[in-house]
Amino acid sequence: MRSGAGEELSRGPAAAVETTGLTKRFGDLVAVDSLDLHVRSGEVYGFLGPNGAGKTTTLRMLLGLVRPSAGTIRILGTLSEGRGTTSLDRVGALIEGPAFYPFLTGRDNLRSLAARRRLPDGRVAEVLALVGLAERAEDRYGTYSLGMKQRLGLAAALLGRPELLILDEPTNGLDPSGMAEMRAVIRDLADSGCTVLLSSHLLGEVRQICDRVGVVSHGRLVSQQRIDELGGPGALRVRAAPLERARDRLARLVGTDVVTVAGDALEVAVPTDLAPTINRALVADGVAVHELRWHEPDLERVFLDLTKETHDVA
Ligand code: ATP
Description:
Layout: E1 15-26, E2 29-35, E3 38-40, E4 44-48, H1 55-62, E5 70-75, E6 78-79, E7 91-94, H2 106-116, H3 122-130, H4 146-158, E8 164-168, H5 176-191, E9 195-200, H6 203-209, E10 212-217, E11 220-226, E12 235-241, H7 243-254, E13 259-262, E14 265-268, H8 275-284, E15 288-295, H9 299-313
Parallel strand pairs: 4-9, 4-10, 7-8, 8-9
Antiparallel strand pairs: 1-2, 1-3, 1-5, 5-6, 10-11, 12-14, 12-15, 13-14
Helix pairs in contact: 2-3, 3-4, 4-5
The structure holds adenosine-5'-triphosphate (ATP).
């Protein structure tokens, strides 16, 4: 396991979700393997992993829809014992294609759900506004685009004013504008104090919306940390000639271990504010500096490496 996995389990704000050793076996297949998940109150947590990594199974266990083979789950501070767990009443979820009546309007679908769950009818208009569907509320569900269907699903999840939202691939299948709308709605919900746990196989999505990320591969959590720390710090990219002399000078200046040759350039893993110092040192040593540029970590690479590593040992 990489550093950062399972970090700070007992510090910081109270946990909205905390699992220990959560495991699910289907026959010989270990779909979820000893997962220690920690979602803090108030954050947007991205549960990231390739197809088949065990995300949906994990979310279904959290919601009491699948019985774990081993491990414990705490939801909003209460130890979960499956479906009857009272804290699950404070959780909203969008986990599989929501079942709505195609011939009913969006509003009437929500009204029927609210009636079944004995929630006030007035809440329907509020959730329609929250997900930006108020203007299309009188159209039949069957005429909705995929993005609108997803937003109606989210509206249904919000009916009971959840403190925690669990969303399985909420932007899956949406076009770029649908994705952007969904992200904006989720961000607004988070800003209003709702904790969000969402799964995705798209790093770019998670990166745009989440505060922290748990990376899962073959059922195992291989990293759990702030999204901006996932790739580690960036590096200064230095193109200079002669390259060898530049490397020796920088190795003396900042240390051999932080200077690496990357093609026709050097990558120097130091804070960006050292750029002027590096430039001066090279020029003073007779090195021509052609380029000095901040290079963001390649998160796509980090994600592939993290998920490949467990694949190799699986
Ligand atoms: P995706 O993004 O493709 O939905 P995922 O990360 O959500 O993937 P899961 O759906 O949790 O992954 O599946 C994890 C593994 O467990 C897969 O190998 C899947 O085939 C298997 N699996 C899931 N549900 C069952 C089941 N009911 N019976 C047997 N195997 C299952």
